[in-house]
Amino acid sequence: MTKPVTTAPAVAAHRWRLLAVVCLVQFMLMVDDTVVNVALPSIQEGLGFAPAGLPWVVNAYILAFGGLLVVAGRIGDRVGLVRTFVAGTAVFALASLACGLAQEPWQLVTARFAQGTGAALVSPTVLGLIALSFTDAAERARAFAVWGTVAVTGGLSGVVLGGIITGTLSWPWVFLVNLPVAAAALVLLPLFARGVAGGRREVRVGARGAVLLTGAVGALAYGLLSLHSGDGVVRLLVALAVAAVLAAGFVLGERAGSVRLIPPGLLADRSRVVALAMGVLATGALFGVFFTLTLQLQRTLGLSPVLAGLAYLPFAAGSFAALRLMPGLAGRMPPGRLLAAAFAVVLAGALLLAGGVAVGGYPALLPGLVVFGFGMSAVLPATAQAAVAGVAPEEAGVSSGLVTSAQQLGGALGLAFAGVLLGAAGDRHLAAIGGAAVLAAGALLLAVTRR
C-alpha cells in the first residue's frame, strides 16, 4: 500500500539546490557511459588490450551498473538515500582514480566494475531524492524534466568530451575528470538534503532475492552485450536460459518468503509496470539511434569524433525545448494523453531520421534530430515519474532502482537490436533506425492503451 510523500521543511528550502547537485552527479554518470567509447583506441594502445578484451572496458561497467540497481535501491531504503548517495559517489570517485592510474588491462576492467557498482548505488537515489523533495505536482514535473534533459544530454556530451580530452590530454583523464565533480557533490549534498530519508528504516533487503535478481539481470545484460561476438547467438540463448531460471527462483522466493526484495504492492500497480515497460522501449530506441547515427556520421559522412558529437546539437536543442514546454503542458493535459502525445513525437522523430538516412547527408538529419530530441526529453522523465508516483518513502529507493534498471536493460536491448540490424540488412543504417522506430511504436501502443 503506497503512502503520500512528505517533504521536511529543511529540505523544501533547499530543494532546487539539491536538484542541482544530484543532476550534476547524474550528468557525470551519463557522461561516463559514453566518454570511454571515444577513448577505446587510445586505451587499447596504451595498455595493450587484446581485441577480444577491449569491449570489457565498457561491458564491465554496464554489467555492474545494470545488475545491481534494484538491490542498491533497496539498500538505499534501508540505510537512507542520502547515505547511499554519498557512499556510491565515493566509490565511483575512488574507482575513477583507479581507472586513471591503471597500468594493466585487468586493473582497468576491475576498476570499471567498481565504477559501475558506485553508479548503481547513486543512480536510484537520484530519482528517490527528487520524488521525496518535490511534493507540488507542477514543481515535481519540472524537476523530473530537468533530470530527463540532463540524463539525455549527458550521454551526448560524453562523445564530445571524450574526443576533446583524449585528443588534448590522454585517455586517463576521461576518468580523472570525475574527481572534482564527485568531491563537490560529497560536500554539498549532505548540506542540502538534511531531512530527506536520512535515517535508517526497518527495511530488510533479502540476500537470497538480491543474489537471484542480480544474477538474472546480469545474465540478460551479458547475453545482449555478447550478441555481436562470433558465437553471440549461442551466448544469448544460454544467457536467456540462465536468466529465466534465476528469475523464476526469484519470483518463487519472493512469493514464499517473509523477507522480500521488492515490496509486494509495488509491481501490483499495472500503471507502474506499464511505465517501466515504456521506459525499456524508449531507452532502447534512444540507444539504438545514438549507436547507429554515430556510425553513420563517422563512417559514412566522415566526421571526426568531436564533430560527430557536435552534430547532435540539434538533438540537444530539441531536448531543451521540451524542458521548457513540457511542465506547462503537464498542467493542462491529462498525464496519459500527454505521455501518448510525447511518444507520438518520438516515433515521428525516428521516422524523420530514417528518411534523413535514406536521403543522405547531414542536413537531411536535422529535422529528425530536433523532433527526436524533443520527444525523448519528454517521455523519459514522464515514464520515470509515473513509475515512482505514489510510492512510500521506504520504497523510494527500490522503485527508483527498478526505473533505472529498466532503462539500462532497454539500452542493452537497443544496442543489441541495432547491432543485429546493422549486420544483417542491406541498407544497414536505415534498417537500424527503422528498428528504433519499431521500439518507439511499441512504447506508443502501450501509452495509448495504458489505464
* Uncertain segments: 1-10
What global shape is seen?
Answer: globular
Q: State the secondary-structure class.
A: mainly alpha
Instruction: Indicate how many domains the architecture comprises.
Output: 3
Largest sheet: none
Percent range for β-strand residues: under 5%
**Run of helices and strands:** HHHHHHHHHHHHHHHHH
**Would you tell me which CATH topology of the largest domain applies?**
Growth Hormone, Chain: A
Radius of gyration, in Å, reads: 21 Å
For the terminal residues, how far apart are their CA atoms? 19 Å
Count of helices? 17
User: Which CATH class of the largest domain applies here?
Assistant: Mainly Alpha
Mean pLDDT: 78
Number of strands: 0
Indicate the CATH architecture of the largest domain: Up-down Bundle
Helical proportion, percent range? over 70%
Assigned CATH superfamily of the largest domain = MFS general substrate transporter like domains
List keywords for this structure.
disordered N terminus; Growth Hormone, Chain: A; mainly alpha; globular; 451 residues
Can you tell me about this structure?
Helix content is 80%, strand content 0%. It is mainly alpha-helical. It has three domains: 9-135 and 143-201, Growth Hormone, Chain: A; 206-260; 265-451, Growth Hormone, Chain: A (Up-down Bundle). Helix 4 packs antiparallel against helix 5.
